[in-house]
Design goal:
Length: about 400
């Protein structure tokens, strides 16, 4: 039978998230459910106000320059298979953006499993090898997150993703026998990492790793470090993975809108259960809520981001490493909020696989490291108590304490 392919248009969602971040000045930014057009209007008004303020001080010596006196500079880059936007304020903003662009292109070249010349691709080809500092760090962090999430975050699941076609968009449904064979290659315990000498050995022939589930979060943290070095503040949007560094120029927090699960081309929400009581409340909402934050990464994972449909069944890209099938846990969207972008990226995927109860249990043990915003298959919205003063929504919020 013909397989219908439906894929999230990443650039559109990237713009929506970007527009949901208010810039300088006192604009309030979009509330949950605001349109992108309204957000864009606010952004344009702010730019006009900033330009006017700059013009008025052209002939006046200013010895007390603040970040509010600087124009917002923005850089757009295509890397890691998505469109990215970096925006910064500050005297050295242009140099910061130059370095940020160079850094993201370097990391893409180094870490992309699909690129045959990348370090990760060469490791997969050779069954391991010598590691760069960056790759060694990411593998070490991945193994730690794997342990903390009881195997839900798994970088060795790449051969299974390839079988489903999620790495090259040649979508298909593997047989149970094929998946059973491939699952023999899955397991972080089959990677032998020598962190001191920066080497890794694959214990089984045919094993492959993919660091894509953690790379963007790591990259956003690296870019935040660059902003810090150049003493600028701003926003980093890596295709929807958002990290803000510092407050807005007026001293207030950034407002990040959390995207609602997307509808299909048929205007349905197959991610929710058929009897989902929350589906009506989600109708027409672009955002499920707004988070006020600074110096944090805000990273969301959902099955609606990449999927295909066959015979009325939807198969999404978040694979459960234990079954080899797309996760069927009770969550449709997971947002992790943390100062550690690497951790946030890894947890956004693994919490989706683990489901509400287990995710809540892990948060309870590590509540000083991250917070969560979750939506289950009934359309119910949950958030952890650490962001109670930061997160608001037009939907009812069930607080996890």
């Amino acid at each position: 039978m013909k397989v219908q392919v439906v894929k999230k248009i990443i650039v559109i969602n990237m713009v929506v998230v970007t527009l949901a971040l208010t810039g300088c000045g006192n604009a309030a930014g979009p509330a949950a459910g605001s349109s992108a057009a309204e957000a864009n209007a606010d952004s344009n008004n702010e730019s006009a106000n900033t330009d006017s303020a700059d013009d008025s001080t052209d002939d006046t010596e200013n010895t007390n320059t603040t970040s509010e006196d600087y124009e917002l500079l923005t850089r757009e880059v295509f890397a890691m298979d998505t469109y990215m936007t970096f925006s910064a304020y500050g005297e050295d903003a242009e140099a910061a953006l130059d370095e940020a662009e160079e850094e993201i292109l370097w990391l893409d070249q180094l870490l992309a499993a699909e690129s045959e010349n990348s370090e990760v691709a060469q490791l997969n080809k050779n069954g391991g090898g010598q590691l760069s500092e960056e790759t060694a760090y990411l593998i070490e962090r991945s193994l730690a997150i794997n342990e903390e999430t009881e195997g839900a975050f798994e970088i060795t699941v790449y051969p299974v993703k390839q079988a489903w076609g999620f790495t090259d968009e040649n979508y298909r449904i593997p047989s149970d026998a094929e998946l059973a064979e491939l699952l023999q290659l899955v397991g972080s315990d089959q990677l032998e990492l020598d962190a001191e000498n920066k080497t890794v050995t694959y214990k089984k022939e045919g094993m492959k790793i993919d660091l894509g589930g953690i790379t963007k979060g790591y990259a956003s943290s690296r870019l935040a470090d660059i902003f810090m070095k150049h003493d600028v503040q701003g926003m980093i949007n890596l295709g929807g993975n958002v990290q803000v560094y510092g407050p807005k120029p007026d001293g207030s927090d950034w407002r990040v809108a959390i995207q609602a699960p997307e509808r299909t081309e048929e205007n349905t929400l197959p991610w929710l259960s058929k009897a989902a009581s929350g589906s009506a409340a989600l109708a027409g909402l672009d955002y499920i809520g707004v988070l006020e934050t600074n110096n944090q990464a805000v990273i969301t994972s959902g099955g609606y981001e990449r999927y295909f449909e066959k015979d009325g069944v939807y198969y999404h890209h978040i694979i459960d490493p234990k079954t080899g099938y797309p996760s069927d846990a009770d969550l449709v969207s997971v947002t992790i909020v943390s100062e550690d972008g690497t951790l946030a990226d890894g947890l956004s995927t693994s919490m989706f696989v683990l489901g509400l109860d287990k995710a809540s249990e892990i948060w309870s043990a590590h509540r000083d490291e991250f917070d969560m915003i979750l939506m289950d298959k009934d359309g119910a919205l949950y958030a952890t108590g650490g962001i109670k003063e930061q997160f608001t929504s037009d939907l009812e919020i069930n607080w996890i304490e």
